[in-house]
Amino acid sequence: MTQYIHDYFAAHALRAISGMKESQQAQSFYRRLLARLERGEDLSAEVPEIARVGSAGAVEVVKQAIAENKTKFDAVWNLPKSVQGIGRQQVSMAREPYEILPRVTMAFTYTGAAGKVTVQAVTAGENVAVEFAAPKNKMAAAAAVSELEKALSFALLAAK
User: What does the pLDDT read at residue 55?
Assistant: First the structure.
C-alpha cells in the first residue's frame, strides 16, 4: 500500500463529507424557506429577490434548489471522470438512526496486468478509514498497487 493512494482517497472522502454537510445545510435552509413561503409569509425583506420574482416564482426556485442539493448529496462521492476511466467505483450509503450523516462505503476497483486492487473508503460520521485489498502474493500485490499508483497519477494529470 502506498501513502499516495491512501492520501488521495482519504482526502476525497473528507471533501465528500464536507459536501454532504453543505448539501444537508442547504436543504434544511430551503425547506424552512419553502414552509414559510407556503404559509404565505412575506419574506421580501429577508430575501430581496423574492420581491422581484414574486412568491410563486420563489416557491419554484426553492423547490428546484432542494432538488439540486439532494442530487449534490450523492454526487459529491463521484471521482473525477479521468479516474473513473481507469477503474470501477461503487458507493453505498447506510443511514443509522440518530446519526446526521449516513455511513458511506466507497470502493474503487482497478484491474491491471499484475492483478486487481480494491481501495475502500469507509466513513462513520466524519471519520474515514481507507483499506486496500490486493492479490495474496506479495510481489503481485506490490506490482498491482504500483500500477494503480501510476495509473491514478496519469489520470489526475490528464484531468488538469
Answer: 79
For Cα atoms 109, 132, 126, give the angle at the middle one, nearest 5 degrees.
95
| Residue 109, φ and ψ in degrees, nearest 5 | -110, 125
119, with CB counted inside 10 A (0-12, 13-18, 19+), is buried
pTM: 0.88
CA distance 125 to 32: 24
Q: Give the DSSP letter of residue 110.
A: E
Sign of the alpha-carbon torsion through 22, 23, 26, 31? negative
Q: pLDDT of 66-82, one tens digit each?
A: 999 999 999 999 999 99
